[in-house]
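For the sake of transparency, this paper describes our internal protein records without simplification. Because each token names a local backbone shape, the row as a whole describes the fold. One such record is reproduced below, unchanged from the form in which we store it:
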Amino acid sequence: MSLRKTLTAVNQHSISPASSISNGNLTVLEVSGSSSRIKFRPRKIRKVSSDLLNSSPRIIITASPPLSTKSTIDLALRHLQSSDELLGDLITSHNDPPVFESSNPPFLSLARSILYQQLATKAAKCIYDRFISLFNGGESGVVPESVIALSAVDLRKIGVSGRKASYLHDLAEKYNNGDLSDELIMKMSDEELIDRLTLVKGIGVWTVHMFMIFSLHRPDVLPIGDLGVRKGVKDLYGLKDLPGPLQMEQLCEKWRPYRSVGSWYMWRLIEAQSQKKKLSKT
């Protein structure tokens, strides 16, 4: 790590009770395309040399564990309520706690993400169910070798477009040749996930963000390209316009290291407002 990156990491990540748990791996995310570079709280322990920091004591920066236990969720909620008054009020007004329940293996989750792209939920579920029916054992039978064995014609018969069929085959081939594996994905930092998974045809940064939050349960992911999260931030802070990537990063900085949970509440905020509008019309 260069001196500049080291100093940036130290300046951005203060040590606090909420961030001193060391059960995670390192996380750094670079969003490609038109968005800016976002640095996430590291998910491995990084030791910063005292020589690099003008002979200051060695600093150890850690991250929060995955969002897979009630204790972690409770810790995240306490942190967000204490660090952001507006978000804290939203959390208090929302009765149900965040849910990150998916336990599917990474390959199945990524295949499902491809199938669901740009489709209404009901239609996507119908196609996904047909897809699962092609495999012996249902979801447990969805492995790279079995996906490769399906032809584009087989997939078109159940409603999968030719383009999505090529995406599924590309994902399976990258698993088959060793570029990816469930084990490798589980060990990757957020930066590595962005770099490696966006090499798969049909998988972009937004898809990887959703995968990290809901499949891997990474705690500190801010999906700055998600319209729902952007709308939520706009309404929460009373902004005139939708925030761009840099403004999103700045406004949500106080949520670290639980920006995934903060994002979850942005979706709930937009859902609640949409429901109110529907009720007002009846």
About this structure: Residues 3-61 form one domain. The chain has a mean pLDDT of 82.
